[in-house]
Each structure stands twice: as structure tokens, then as C-alpha cells.
UniProtKB/TrEMBL annotation:
Coiled-coil segments: none
UniProtKB keywords: DNA recombination, DNA-binding, Transposable element, Transposition
GO biological process terms, semicolon-separated: DNA transposition
Domain of life: Bacteria
GO MF, one annotated term: transposase activity
Family that this chain belongs to: Belongs to the transposase mutator family.
Keyword DNA-binding: yes
Function: Required for the transposition of the insertion element.
Protein's UniProt name: Mutator family transposase
DNA-binding recorded as keyword: yes
Length: 186
């Protein structure tokens, strides 16, 4: 398999992960809205959204009274700044939840509470842990290993370059799956 095909496979795996994270964020946002304003859930409606990783299909949550609209989406907008990515980046940089809420409010023009930031980071961390503990398929036709470098802020150590190793598997049916990833510091 050539480098271009591998890049397409990795991009698709990232797009699927972005879809999952955005869906988690939308559900957490509705929960926060209902806790603050009351009301009840009322299902979802479909919407396509262009992200930096390609088009994703989302199920937008709604409430019975029709008062809720996701704070991380602009009405009728079809492009999105990933709020979860911003929240996780701030959290990873060691910014407190209250300060992260202030920064996101300034950057994105919407007021976020520290409780919302906490819920977002908790759900994303839970999803990451579930991903790491999921059972792997017993059979793979191919397994590709690749890596890239990131700058990572380590508590008490400052910014360091870290290698991120990614294992990508292809099942006998041709389905692509990210099997795992590992961060290694030099």
C-alpha cells in the first residue's frame, strides 16, 4: 500500500473520531442546557457539518419546548470550530476549568461554565478510555504502524517533542480501524 492510500485511511479514521467526539459534545451541551433551564429531551435531527477533517454527519439533539440550540454550532452554519478540541487543548495545557471557560467564551463568543468544560473533558476522557479498553478484532489482513511528532506541555517539565505512534488495521472485509496510539517522550 502506498503512502497516499495510508494517508487517506488515517484521515478517514480521524474524521470518524471527530464525528464521535462532536456527538459527545452535543449531547453534553444539551444535558447542561436542560440542567440549567429545565425541560426534557426530544430526540435528534440530522445535519452535515464541514470540519477540518472532512464532512461529518451529526445527530443534533433537541428539547421538547424547542428552546435548545447547540451552543457549539452557529444557526445555519456548515463549518465548525471544534469546541471539544479547544477545551481539551486548554485542559491538556494545565489551564483550570474556570479559566478555560473564560478563554473559550472570549474565543468563541459564547459563555461556557466551568461545569460544562468539566463535563466535556470528562466525557472525552471516558470515550478515550473506552476506546483503549475495547476488544480488538481477532483477525486483520494488514496492520500499519506510523507516527508523527507533537509538542506537548508536560507538567513541571515544560514543552517537549513527543512521538505519537498509530496502529491502523484493515480487516479481511476491507474495513479500516485505528487499533491504538501511544505517546512516547524522547
Amino acid at each position: 500500500m502506498d503512502q497516499d492510500t495510508l494517508q487517506v485511511m488515517l484521515r478517514e479514521a480521524v474524521r470518524q473520531t471527530v464525528t464521535e467526539v462532536l456527538q459527545i459534545l452535543l449531547d453534553a451541551d444539551r444535558e447542561a442546557f436542560l440542567r440549567q433551564h429545565g425541560g426534557r429531551k426530544n430526540g435528534y435531527y440530522p445535519r452535515k457539518l464541514e470540519t477540518a477533517f472532512g464532512q461529518v454527519k451529526l445527530a443534533i439533539p433537541r428539547d421538547r419546548e424547542g428552546k435548545y440550540y447547540p451552543s457549539l454550532l452557529q444557526p445555519y452554519a456548515r463549518r465548525q470550530v471544534d469546541v471539544g478540541e479547544v477545551a481539551i487543548a486548554l485542559y491538556a495545557a494545565g489551564v483550570s476549568q474556570r479559566k478555560a471557560a473564560e478563554v473559550m467564551s472570549l474565543l468563541l463568543g459564547h459563555r461556557y461554565t466551568h461545569e460544562t468544560i468539566s463535563a466535556i473533558t470528562d466525557q472525552v476522557l471516558e470515550a478515550a478510555e473506552a476506546f483503549q479498553k475495547r476488544p480488538l478484532p481477532e483477525e486483520m489482513a494488514f496492520v500499519y504502524l506510523d507516527g508523527f511528532f507533537l509538542k506537548v506541555l508536560r507538567e513541571g517539565l515544560g514543552v517537549e517533542r513527543a512521538a505519537v505512534y498509530v496502529a491502523l488495521g484493515v480487516t479481511p472485509k476491507g474495513e479500516r480501524q485505528v487499533l491504538g496510539c501511544k505517546i512516547a517522550f524522547g
